[in-house]
Specification:
The protein is α+β, with helices and mostly antiparallel strands and 250 residues long. Helix content is 33%, strand content 31%. The chain contains ten helices and ten strands. It has a six-stranded antiparallel β-sheet with strand order 4-5-6-9-8-7, with helices on both faces. A two-stranded antiparallel sheet has the order 1-2. It has a two-stranded parallel ribbon with strand order 3-10. Strand 1 (67-70) and strand 2 form a beta hairpin. The relative contact order is 0.13. Keywords: DNA-binding, Transcription, Transcription regulation. This is GntR family transcriptional regulator. Residues 12-80 form the HTH gntR-type domain.
Length: 250
């Protein structure tokens, strides 16, 4: 499992590594619309991998809207206009969450200790009197001026010693919790909901008030199934698309 491999410090699966290499080539313009995209055979030889691995990497890029695969005509890079400037991001497992963090940048600010916002506490059925450390960050994609997310992160009060060691310029807090506190990710839950931009969020995201946003609420549990981090990320509807794929079990 990807989650277990990353928790043990192992490298991500090869298909994610190859997908990242190709993604970077596309976003940098090295592979652009109209260019001949490498064939599956070429990619197998270049990376020393199987066709199955290549196809899984290409499936990731297709899900993100970066390429189109057409039977009989091969693979092509989709023009930026066809993608509508929207980030099509797979966030289905720990490996992809980490990849998302590497492909974008965020700087957090510490906002002190407090209780969880009432709505979040009710949604996850968390005790209302617990102390949490709150952080806020605005996430950007390289080369873009408009934010693709504003994230409110909450770290449980029992990790006060760990919080003091955070580098707020790093993209993920849960990896720093793992690094400085020895806390291992056991599982992550994720809830996705369409919401309207509040007055505050509309300013931060630079969108109209009450425009469509995608809120992703994640809860991070350790191997003893104790909740230790919560993140609520708000994405402008026109700049972000959540992507995933499912295989048939037949």
């Amino acid at each position: 499992m990807i989650r277990d491999a990353i928790a043990r410090g192992k490298a991500p699966p090869r298909y994610l590594q190859v997908a990242e290499t190709l993604r970077s080539a596309i976003l940098s313009g090295e592979l652009s619309p109209g260019d001949q995209f490498p064939t599956e055979s070429d990619l197998c030889k270049a990376h020393g991998i199987s066709r199955f691995t290549v196809r899984e990497a290409l499936r990731r890029l297709e899900t993100e809207g970066l390429i189109a695969r057409r039977r009989g005509s091969g693979t092509v890079v989709r023009p930026a206009a066809a993608r509508g400037g929207t980030l099509h991001q797979p966030l289905s497992n720990v490996g992809e969450i980490l990849q998302y963090a590497q492909d974008t940048s965020i700087t957090f600010t510490a906002e002190g200790a407090s209780r969880l916002p009432r709505k979040i506490a009710e949604e996850i059925d968390s005790p209302a009197n617990e102390k949490w450390f709150r952080f806020r960050g605005t996430r950007l994609r390289s080369g873009d001026d408009l934010p693709i997310a504003v994230t409110d992160a909450f770290v449980h009060g029992r990790l006060a010693d760990v919080v003091g060691s955070f580098d707020l310029n790093q993209s993920t807090l849960f990896r720093q919790i793992e690094q400085f506190g020895g806390v291992r990710v056991g599982r992550i839950t994720q809830d996705i909901q369409a919401v309207s931009a509040s007055a505050e969020m509309s300013v931060l995201l630079q969108v109209q008030r009450r425009s469509a946003c995608l809120r992703i609420l994640r809860c991070y549990y350790d191997v003893e199934d104790r909740l230790y981090e919560i993140s609520a990320s708000y994405h402008p509807g026109e700049r972000f698309a959540y992507s995933m794929h499912m295989e048939s079990d037949r």
